[in-house]
Structures are given as structure tokens and as C-alpha cells.
Amino acid sequence: PDTVRIRPGGETAVLRYTGQVLRGRADALRPSASYLGPTLELRRGERVRIEFRNRLADPSIIHWHGMIVPEAADGHPRFAVGPGGEYVYEFTVTNPAGTYLYHPHPHGLTGAQVYRGLAGLLIVREAQERAWGLPGPEHELSLVIQDRRLAGDNRLEFKRMMMDDMNGVLGDTVLVNGVAAAAFRVAPRPWRLRLVNASNARIYKLAWSDDRPMRVIASGNGLLSAAEGIQTRPYVVLAPFERIELLEDFGTRRPGSEVALVSREFASLGMMGGMMGGGMMGRGMEDMMRGMMGPGQGEALPVARFDVGTQARTAGEELRLPPAPRSPREGHELHTRLAFRHMRGFLDGRRFKMEAVADDERLPLDEGTVWTFANDGGPMAMAHPMHIHGVRFRVLERSTGDAPADLREGLVDAGFKDTFLIFPGERVRLLVAPTEPGLFMYHCHNLEHEDGGMMRNCRFE
Ligand code: C2O
Ligand code: CU
Ligand code: CU
């Protein structure tokens, strides 16, 4: 196994993706400085061929999260290959400019493999991005945010207790691009920041330490449209495998100053969150639990520091976001109820079976399906980051008043998404219009919920 330096003073054993360009553009793979895989930089419209070789001791397969690719290139767990096995992907990049990810998807092992290092960024570029007034690649930063538990000897600690299957594995240290206490030096000018949550289970409430508003230009799968415009939020909520892009003008801050990206506290989610601080346990008991388990869902955590340069300020160009594509006709309707009981998640009372797809999991091609997700309320209810493969969808409606008050203002439902957070008791309606035929899937992207079977196939036909 490879070792990398995650925090000063020691090496940590990890798994990692490595790659090389066999032919074509050498700049299509940007090596990463950490355990993260090389950043795949693809251009919209280009044809890609990727050969995957599994050198792990376990089965694996790669999924291109958020990308709309043919069924055979999607990395569904049924395509997992054993140690020494190979899998060849071929697809044309049809997704618009934006921030995507790749990660393993073998059933039952996804959480462990991602946790130990297997994940990478996938960026789609378009020629027009410059014309839209976006900062160029030299003025953008990607922040892949992950929480990890590092033992005293710097070993990554994965599951330690039963709780981990229920809440998902939460860490006590936030890593950005694979390192703890990340810091960036930024020129005083507008930057495009790609914020990526590649954590197994942690939901972040991201804010600037000086409480400046955040200007969101992308909420998931591609940029927002001109009609939606830049969305301004006091903070943004980023669930596992969601991405958000900000346009941040560091030139509006004092030269030589520093500002931090932090995850603010929220009390509304998570079992322990509800019990701790809720007066259900005494203070001493709470402290003991915290010491044992590390920070639970919703605890305040530092993420990264930005040092603003002292050079002269550069003004930005005027941003013109791209026009919105036409909306599909709404024909079909689907309904899925989410429930969590006996430590496991259920989708309409069902759990994952490798090839199974029910009649109410079929979506017509090239037409709009209104897919309603309803999350059970009740004492064991949890928030779930739900994801659908092979499509980008719109959030049509979120039941009002059900999102917790301390997170509500940080949701960005505008634009196209492939992953969305649904809170206990909430109902969210999506408009989904698949274009690729075949067997895809939908699942909770809390990786422990996913590995525990909160995942189902769906067929586009
Ligand atoms: Cu990001 Cu089914 O995965
Ligand atoms: Cu996916
Ligand atoms: Cu879940």
C-alpha cells in the first residue's frame, strides 16, 4: 500500500488511483499531491476511453458520479471486477461544464474504499466558459472535503462501533485535498471555488469565518442558468457527494488578511445531535461520549484557510451564466418512501438486490418523470443525501417548513443536480428525464447507508 502525509509528523497508509494518458491530451490527467486520484479534466463533446485495472485485494469498479454515460460505462456494482481484473469504459462527454467526481462502487465495499483514499475529481470544461466571464483555470481552486479519524500512529480508522453503520462514519479531522489544516494563498481578485463533499457521511454547513455571504454559481450538476442567476446564501449545506461552486472575490478583503472556510454548528440532525445538547444526558456524559466518538453530525469544524495576497487588486469580468435548457414534458409519476429502521435504510420497504428492478422503478426515456421522495418522520428518522445515476434532474418542490430552521437557508435547489438532501419528514419532488437506456440505480449517498443496502436499481426504457 501507498503511504502519504495527511498531517505533519507521520505517514498514513492509503489506497489510491493512479493513471496515465495512453494517447490524446496529456493535460487530461492532472496528478494530485495527496492520496486523491488524478483530476480528470475532460472537454464537453470529447470521446473518452478509460482502462481500469484493479490492483486491490478486493473487488472494485469505478463510477463517474454525475456523468451521463451509457449503461456499460456507469460503474454499476454488477460490473465490479476482482483482484487483477480489468474493465474498459468508453463514453462521450455530454455533461456541461462543471464539477464531478469518480469513486469506487463495489457493493458493500464502497464506504471502506472511499474512506481509505479512493476518490478523484472530474472536471468538465467548455470552450465558452471564458466568454461567460468565469475566472480561468489559473484562478480556480477545487476543495475536496473529507473527514477522517486518524489514530495516534496516523492510521486511518474506519468503523469502530455499531453507531457507524447507523450514522455513517464520521471523522474528527477535516481534510481538504487529502491534507489536514489546508491553507491556500489567493490573489486579491475573483476566484472560482469548487467545493466538493467526498466524505462518507458528514454534512457540512459551510460559511466564511467573517460571515460574508456566499455567491453560488453551480449547485451540483453544471452551472446555474442566466434565468436563475447567482444565488446568494449566508452559508451552504453540502451533503456527501454534492458539489457547489462559488464565485468569491477575495479582492474585497483587506490585502494580507486571512479568512477561513468553516463548517458551522447545527443541532437539528443526527441521533447523537438530538441527544447531546438536548438535555437528555448530563453534561459529563455528553463530554465522555464526544471524547469516545469524536465530533458528531453538526459539530463546528474548521475546513480551510485562505491568505489574501498583498498585490494590487484585479477586478473580475461581468458574469453571464449560460441559458437554461428546455424543460421536458412531465408525463410519468413515481413515488419512493424512505425509511430507516433496525440500523438500515429502506427504499419503499425494499433493499438492494444486484439485478432486481420493480415495476415502479422504471422510467420512460426522453420524457419527464415527476419522482417524489418522502422521508418518514419519527424518532429514528435521518437526513439522507439521495442520488440517481445516469441523469441530471431538477428539484421541483420541497415540502415547506420541514427543513430544519438551522439549515434551510443554505440549501440551493436551483439548477440541475444529481444528489439532493432530504430531511426527516420532508417530501421532495424531482423532474427526471433520462436519455440513456438501461439499468442504472438510485441510493442514499451516505456510504454506510448505501453499503447497508439503501440502494435500488432503476431502469430507463
Ligand atoms: Cu456517487 Cu452510486 O454513486
Ligand atoms: Cu452516481
Ligand atoms: Cu441515508
Automatic annotation (TrEMBL):
Transmembrane segments: none annotated. The keyword Oxidoreductase applies. InterPro entries: Cu-oxidase-like_N, Cu-oxidase_C, Cu-oxidase_fam, Cu_oxidase_Cu_BS, Cupredoxin. SUPFAM superfamilies: Cupredoxins. It comes from the Bacteria. One of its GO terms (molecular function) is oxidoreductase activity. Keywords: Metal-binding, Oxidoreductase. Residues 34-128, 360-457 form the Plastocyanin-like domain. This is Multicopper oxidase domain-containing protein.
